[in-house]
Amino acid sequence: MTVPSSHAATCPNCGAPVRFLWAQAVQTTCAYCRSLLVRRDLDLERIGLQADFPVTGSPIQIGTEGKWRGLSFVVVGRITYAWDRGRWNEWHCLLNDGRSAWLSDAQLEYAMSVATSPGGNMPALADIRVGQTYYWGDIGYTVTNVLEASYLGTEGELPFTTTDKRRCTFVDLQNNDGGMATIDGTEFPSLLYTGEFVSFDDLALKYLREFEGW
Hints:
By secondary structure, the protein is an all-beta fold. The protein has strands spanning 7-10, 17-20, 27-29, 35-40, 43-49, 65-68, 71-83, 86-95, 100-106, 109-115, 133-136, 139-156, 167-174, 179-184, 191-198.
């Protein structure tokens, strides 16, 4: 995969080198001291310390590469969420056309999505109910779940800061053609992501985490 040249910086806490693969990254985590770092113009500011959080059982890791919709991508960051039925990972991916995408990884179910303009007002979270159908770009999506989640932790490069986000509302939608959408209530107005469910093999992943016994 061809990615933009990396951008180097120095951790303000421990002095270790911090390398950005994605020029637009807003937040990252120092791999050495686990400081949470946010970009302020050309400088990095330490805003906290990333506590240890449960090790993922996923084979995906930062640096994993794959393909989606004819584009190659590299995983550059991760957010792990918890909700009342468990936890899941959202892997932040850099597509080779420069866009950002998200690979949702929940108990061996995978979906890829990108930020999408709704072309109008987003529905109010308080009004959304399971079974309702919404249309974006003439494509219908039906609500399958409305859930409250909390942040367990982050690593790598992200397009926003997570320090002010503790709990958040997500709305899951899908259709009969394998399409999916997510309404992300961490911002106001809510953000919309659309994409599709994918299989592990569809993604043609490489540079995966190896587990004992593989």
